[in-house]
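Page 47, continued from p. 46.
Same chain as before, 485 aa.
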Amino acid sequence: MGGLMVATRSVLMVTGRVTNDVVSFIVFTLLDLLDVLLCVLYKLTDLLIEAEWKPCYCSSAKEAITSSGKILVSEQGESKIVCLSSSKLQWEDLSDTLYSRPSLVSDLSKSTVKELKRLKIEATTTIRTRERSNKNGTLRSTFTINSTIVEMLQGKIGGQRSHPIPRWSDCDCITCTSWSSSSSCKETLFVRAEGPKDKSDTGEDVLFIHGFISSSKFWTETVFPNFSREAKSKYRLIAVDLLGFGRSPKPTDSLYTLREHVEMIQRSVLEPYKVKSFHIVAHSLGCILALALAVNHPGAVKSLTLLAPPYFPVPKGEAATQYVLRKVAPRRVWPPIAFGASIACWYEHISRTICLLICKNHRLWEFLTKLVTRNRIRTYMMEGFFCHTHNAAWHTLHNIICGSAGKVNEYLDAVRERLDCEVTIFHGSDDELLPVDCSYAVQTKIPRARVKVIEKKDHITIVVGRQKAFARELEEIWKKKSSRG
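Result:
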């Protein structure tokens, strides 16, 4: 009887897997086609409304950077040098997943974009990848980047805005545009700080970093109210809205690279608040920023608490960015969270449509959420989900989650070897977006890290719903580090 049940369960699992594969193939093939059609529609709409269309990542021309930092462009048999000078942007900050996402209709997409550029009397740009030696004779590595980046950066690197703020498909409410009306607010993130205003020598700072399409309210409306009176008097609690999210700036001329995110946190928190040493608490995508900050300030970080870190060890011989893309967004309709992640990662124009419907009308959706849920915490969580732009979400997702795939190993090695801080990792056992294996993989790189698997909790409920318990756990981590000196 037992053997029959096992056999039946095995057959059902195989049947379910095959069904998921077949349905996924059909659904994502249709979505591939839809994204191509939306590409055409958005280009025409942008041209009609803004007198120019927004460059997208549907084409796949190649480019190379010479040793001088210039770009060699071959156009219709003629060559020229395009100078792009910037102290902020490094080419390795840009993920190739922005423009290289193989699909059944990728060739059709490229042909469509090519025809559109021809109608606009723009030649398709082909930039050849070369290897050049520097003065010491060492070879520079070669790589390919979509020609769209050249179009975008020619306006953006020089400090010129390619498009007005906001774009027609972005929200223009006071909350979403307030940062652009004041030069004093333009260069800093929105920061919420609670605790001692005059931090004494015994006081400590704690920096909270939220995850993808979220905001500082993920922390301020959950764990902040649940800290003990003692903790609130001792620790200065600082939560930040990342660049492009919540109430922080959402510039259209940003590519939302890891470097930009980290520099904005340093400029908005560490410098103005005179933070010398601090604890870090980070969730999901925020864990990557937390690791980068920790490596930049190795002597200042007292403890590192990571929740559901998106770390996927890349097998030898695999392209790191593409491997992580497939792990995070597997192009499957089930489970639902994997389907949502796949839509967000693979489809530039479908995800822009979702932002047009949801983010541009976020005030309506926030009202409906309040009306339906009548739950303060869930309402604030949804507000964070609604308040961003497609440009911010698209570039942050690719340049941080996928683009940092090759850097996270270095960060983890640095934390293991150069940092003397507590490392604690929390992960929900039911997390279908990022499996528990991600946290155990981090522990493999940092053996002293403690992994705490929270049973029957997922990517969000690891905090929401257990905020009181989590607040106590954080206090214990900070107290333990302080007692050790």
